[in-house]
Design brief:
By secondary structure, this protein is mainly α. Helix content is 74%, strand content 0%. The protein has 13 helices and no strands.
């Protein structure tokens, strides 16, 4: 059997292990998933009429269309925190040390966590998207090609953030520390253009919202689904995804291959 076949086989085994673990302990995933759903309902039904002033005063129906793409990206940021916690638990409980001594492909443990987290993120996005549709979100302007591009962007962003989250889990001493270290992945969407346009923010705060990975990804997703202007955001979002994936991969491999103390 070739090394590639062994890597695929072992990675598939680790993926099944992580999916079974997620199924047996769903509370973490549910807790992370409830946050974007509650924010979506809160901002639409409580603050919708007021927040719509920041996008031109179109009312609650227009604000639903505006906020859903941002909430979808926030869902990814929240869901991948579970990957950081899961990896940290494996590290602290000693199972990773056991895997190091077994005749399996060395990178399969990390690949299993990454692929499992991406699948969970995609499932969470679909569920939150369904809630958005149920409360009035519509994308009548999007063509099938734009829907495919939007899905591809969500997957790319999920992969990028998952590698970063797994790296955080590998360097965290325990699950609690991993959860705290991954908090920026939840907080960054709150200071992006997810809820109001960056142009409506104070001048001193606007660069924080503009020069981070979530804002260009959100604006690109809005453009694909709602027909708004994308501009350079598409290329910037893809560049962020590639850069974060490369950085996260190198960080994970370096941390995982480091000899344990």
């Amino acid at each position: 059997m070739s090394s590639l076949s062994l890597a695929v086989r072992d990675s598939s085994t680790m993926l099944r292990r992580n999916l079974l673990h997620a199924r047996r302990y769903p509370s973490l995933t549910l807790n992370l998933l409830l946050t974007p759903i509650m924010l979506l309902l809160l901002f639409v039904y409580i603050f919708g009429d007021t927040m719509s002033v920041g996008i031109g005063g179109g009312g609650r129906s227009d604000y639903v269309a505006y906020i859903v793409p941002g909430i979808l990206m926030m869902t990814i940021g929240g869901t991948v925190v579970g990957a950081a916690v899961s990896v940290a638990m494996d590290m602290s409980e000693g199972i990773i040390a056991r895997f190091r001594t077994m005749a399996i492909h060395r990178g399969s443990v990390i690949v299993g966590h990454v692929v499992g987290s991406v699948l969970q993120s995609v499932a969470a996005v679909v569920l939150v998207g369904a809630v958005g549709v149920a409360i009035g979100f519509r994308s009548s302007h999007a063509t099938p090609l734009e829907w495919l591009a939007a899905f591809g962007l969500l997957v790319m962003f999920s992969v990028a953030l998952t590698w970063i989250a797994v790296g955080m889990g590998l360097v965290s001493p325990n699950a609690e520390a991993a959860s705290n270290n991954a908090m920026p992945l939840i907080l960054l969407p709150l200071i992006s253009s997810a809820f109001v346009p960056a142009d409506a923010m104070p001048g001193w705060f606007r660069p924080i919202a503009e020069y981070q990975p979530f804002t260009p990804a959100i604006e690109t997703l809005r453009g694909l689904l709602l027909g708004t202007e994308i501009g350079n955001n598409g290329w910037i979002a893809v560049a962020w995804c590639v850069a974060l994936t490369a950085l996260g991969y190198r960080w994970c491999m370096a941390s995982f291959n480091r000899d344990p103390k």
